[in-house]
Design a protein that fits this description.
79% of the residues lie in helices and 0% in strands. It has one domain. It contains seven helices and no strands. It is mostly helical. The chain is globular and about 45 Å long. The longest helix has 33 residues. Helix 2 runs antiparallel to helix 3, helix 3 packs across helix 4 and helix 3 crosses helix 7.
């Protein structure tokens, strides 16, 4: 691995290290959000009713901001947030489709988690709130925690 310093140069190596540090942090946030969102559904007694009803959807939307950032580290955060919200709306609208194939996919735990089971207008609001929170956290992370020069 030492040869990479000579092949790509010190500046490029530092940039590559910075990108790996960023991806690792977003991956940790993603895993934490998955755990927290699922916990709001499986351990309802731990949370207030408002969090039980809406927290999972809000956390889920923010989680996808972190997930997308792992794979698109150079894309402006506002674009990631906008795409995230649009995909959330499309996912919610897909719940109106009750065709046999969609019902089959939703019969699996992963399918239920990814596609949902029933359309709710409140979910669209939750996705907006979650996307804004995830976007805000990502801005703070990149502005204060992940500075390329440090």
């Amino acid at each position: 691995m030492y040869y990479t310093v000579f092949l790509i140069g010190e500046g490029q190596l530092l940039h590559k290290t910075f990108l790996m540090k960023r991806k690792l942090l977003y991956a940790i946030l993603f895993v934490f959000c998955v755990w927290l969102a699922l916990t709001t559904r499986t351990h309802k007694a731990w949370f207030p009713e408002l969090v039980v009803n809406y927290g999972g959807d809000i956390i889920w939307a923010g989680m996808f901001v972190f997930f997308v950032r792992i794979f698109f580290p150079k894309t402006p955060l506002w674009k990631i947030a906008l795409i995230n919200y649009i995909l959330g709306i499309l996912d919610e609208l897909s719940q109106l489709n009750q065709g046999p194939f969609m019902l089959y996919l939703r019969s699996f735990t992963l399918g239920r988690l990814m596609l949902g089971v029933g359309f709710l207008w409140s979910d669209i609001v939750c996705y907006g709130i979650g996307t804004l929170i995830g976007w805000g956290i990502a801005i703070l992370i990149e502005k204060y925690l992940l500075q390329e020069n440090s």
